[in-house]
Structures are given as C-alpha cells and as structure tokens.
Amino acid sequence: MVKLNTQLISIFVVVVLVYACVPASAVEESEAKQLWDTCLLKITPNCALDIIANVFGNGTISDLCCHDLVQEGRVCHDTLIQYISDRPSLRANETQYLKKSDDVWNHCVSVSKIAKN
C-alpha cells in the first residue's frame, strides 16, 4: 500500500512539474497531450524526476533510468527539456541546461551501449 501511494505521489509530482514548467504559449493543449502520451509514459515518474533534477540541478541518474531515457528517444528528451528550460525564470540559463541535457543524453547512450554488450 505504501509503495502504491509513493508511486501515485511520484506521478502527481511529475505531472505538476511538467504542467508548471511548460509555458502555455509554447505548447498547444493537443501538442502537450501528444507529448505526454508518446514520451512521458515510457519512463517511470522517479526517472523523470531524476532526469529533471540532473539537468536543472545537481541530481544523479541511475543506469536503469538511462536505459529508460534512451528508449524514450532523443526527440522526446530534447523536447521536454526545451519546454522546461523555456520558462521565463529559467531562460537566462537555457544554454547551460541544454548543455547539461546533451551531457545526460550522451552519458545515457554510452551506459545503454555498455549494458547491451
């Protein structure tokens, strides 16, 4: 029961973060729903939070989350990070966030390649 509550809370936090961070003018409602349906459901809420924490803070990302991220795909990853970094409060450091996003992606691709071998 506790695990289910933790998962529900994690999902709620991810939804709130995405909707809070996505500028209304950047994404039409149908685009946001399509992005949600095709991208965010491929990774766990905890991994989504780890990715966001890594790009926009000092968080870490596990090998398992890296695998999920690579399965999600580069377009989904880039689009989500771009939407979040486009917030007025984050725009000043957008270049830094996009660089960290690339670093996370490259790290995760290398981790996924090693896991396959």
UniProtKB/TrEMBL annotation:
Keywords of the record: Signal
PROSITE patterns: PROKAR_LIPOPROTEIN
Domain Prolamin-like: 38-109
Source superkingdom: Eukaryota
Signal peptide coordinates: 1-26
Keyword Flavoprotein: no
Keyword Signal tagged: yes
Protein name: Prolamin-like domain-containing protein
